[in-house]
Amino acid sequence: MAFRIKFSALAVAALCAVPLMASAQQNWPTKPVTIVVAYPAGGAADMLARLVAPKMAAVLGQSVVIENRGGAAGQIGAGYVAQARPDGYTILVDGGGYAINPTLFPKLPYDPAKAFTPLGILGVFPLVLTVSPNYSAKTTAELVQTARSAPDSVSYASPGTGSTQHLATEQFLQQAKVKMVHIPYKGGSPAMADVMGGHVPVYVANIGSSLTNMKANKLRPLAVMAARRSDLLPDVPTLAEAGVPNAEAYEWNGMFMPAGVPPAVAAKLSEALKVALDAPDVKERITSVGGEPFTGSNAEVKKFIDLQTQRMGKVMRDGNIKAE
Predict the structure, then answer these.
(1) What single DSSP character describes residue 150?
(2) 122, 277 in Cβ contact below 8 A?
(3) Phi, psi (5° rounding) for residue 51?
(4) SS3 state at 311
(5) Are strands 90-94 and 33-37 parallel, antiparallel or unpaired?
(6) Mean pLDDT per 10-residue run, the chain (324 residues)?
(7) What is the pTM of this model?
(8) N or C: the chain end with fewer CB closer than 10 Å?
(9) DSSP for 121-176?
(10) How far apart, in whole angstroms, are the C-alpha atoms of residue 277 and residue 275?
């Protein structure tokens, strides 16, 4: 009898907890939400997070704060959010490293296949194949022919091994079936500076960070590495138009939450982000820095991220590229 009484008490407690949990989710959020940016302040990921945060706060009725946890190619910030309670109060903004790290690094502080659920894409930034202003190749076809006629005679710069630009260049080379010598730098600024100075001939650049230099004829764009031409460079063909298909590459930033966030809370976060990204001033700001707003459904967001992960993984495996 005592056992039955104890069991009944537990059952009553469990039944009482159900409406309390439902009420908590309905009233969520009751405190500030933290966006952990997996990169240092000042970069694209940080800019985008700070752009959408106040718009999301207005929808949620709570402040949304930014916390930068950069380092280890995004692993520190991602690892922190992966270990956070899945209550919706801690979310992540990551970039291309999210799709690259699972293949680049033999071990991560989280299981990338199980740790996160994507909320949305903040912005997609097409990459551009560029050369030094005085370099002899004036088109993508001429660049490919130069590299093909004298293997390993052409070099290219990148912000570092395993960077999106490095892998985008390797994907282009694999599709074009040519080779070039990789010269990794510690960041995009010194890499671009040496290309503009003619020390290294080839560089795959983010359209936003390189547009001013291209317009000033300090870099010559050969092809946009996107599915369609950029409105900012309407006269520059895509790589497919230039004769190298299946080599699309982008820098991008997405927002994620730990796996296991209650559906009602996830729906509120998703709606808040959608409202933020639909705001005209947010769209205008993203476009002004060379980005393209991503307005797809949750299924399309997941499809985009999965495709980036598959493409970058294949490039690394085919090129035997590993973290240094």
Answers:
(1) S
(2) yes
(3) -75, -45
(4) helix
(5) parallel
(6) 48 52 74 97 94 98 97 94 97 95 92 91 95 96 96 93 96 97 94 97 93 95 95 95 95 96 96 96 92 87 94 95 86
(7) 0.88
(8) N
(9) EEEEEEEEEEE-TT-S--SHHHHHHHHHHSTT--EEEESSTT-HHHHHHHHHHHHH
(10) 6
**DSSP string of 15-83?**
HHHHHHHHHHHHH--SS-EEEEESS-TTSHHHHHHHHHHHHHHHHHTS-EEEEE---GGGHHHHHHHHT
- 219 phi, psi to nearest 5 deg: -135, 145
Q: What does the block give as tokens for 52? A: 């959408």
Q: Tell me the C-alpha distance between 183 and 160, whole Å.
A: 8
Task: Confirm if 36 and 273 have CB atoms less than 8 A apart.
Answer: no
Q: How far is CA 111 from the centre of its chain?
A: 18
The span from the CA of 150 to the CA of 153, in Å, is 6
* Cβ neighbours around 319 below 10 Å, total: 15
**What phi and psi, each to the nearest 5 degrees, are found at residue 36?**
-90, 120
Q: Within 13 Å and on the Cβ side, how many CA atoms surround 296? A: 18
